[in-house]
C-alpha cells in the first residue's frame, strides 16, 4: 500500500530536508508578517461591517468585479484572481447574490460556465465602503511605516507575490488589479 504523502513534503514531491527550515531571522520575519496580516484582517473586516455592512470577503469579490471588463468574471477566474478555492467563491457569490450585490449569469464566453456580475447595488456598496476602507488602510498600515521603507516594501511584496505565482498551485491570474476605487468608471 502506498504511503500517504507527508504534509511536510515539498511542492515538487521530494521530502523536506534539514536545510529547508527557516533561519531565526526568517522565522521572526514570518511571525511579524502573520501578526500584521491576522490583526489587519480583523480590523478591516470590522470596519467594513460597521461602515458598509460588507465583509472583507465581500469587498474582495466586489473589487475584483469592479476592476474587470464588463464588471464580470467567470467564477473560476474570480477564484484565481482573489486566490480562493472555486467552491469558496461559489458559496460567497451565492450569499452576495441573495443580498443583491452580484448576479450569477451564464458566461458570455463559455456556455458551460457561470459568471459573477457586479450589480448597481454592489457597485454602490463598494463606493460607500471604499473611503472608510482606504482611510483605515492608511491609518493602520502606512501611517506607522517609515516613508523610506515604502518602496523597498513594495518591491519585496511584488517579489513574494511573483514567487507565489511561480511556485503555487493556482494558475496565474489574467491581468493585474489596478484599482479599488471609482467602480463606475469603465
Q: Count of DSSP E strands?
A: 3
Q: Give the strand content.
A: 5-15%
- Residue share in helix: 40-55%
Number of helices: 6
Biggest beta sheet attributes: 3 strands, antiparallel
Shape: globular
For the largest sheet, list the strands in their spatial order: 1-3-2
Determine the N-to-C terminus distance: 57 Å
Order of helices and strands: HHEHHEEHH
By helix and strand content, what is the structural category? mainly alpha
Computed Rg: 19 Å
Could you name the ranges where pLDDT drops below 50 across 5 or more consecutive residues? 1-7, 180-186
Calculate the mean pLDDT score and round it. Answer: 88
Report on the structure:
A hairpin with a 7-residue loop joins strand 2 and strand 3. The N and C termini lie far apart (57 Å). Helix 1 packs across helix 5 and helix 3 packs across helix 4. The protein is built from six helices and three strands. With 186 residues, the chain is mostly helical. The longest helix is centred in the first third of the chain and has 29 residues.
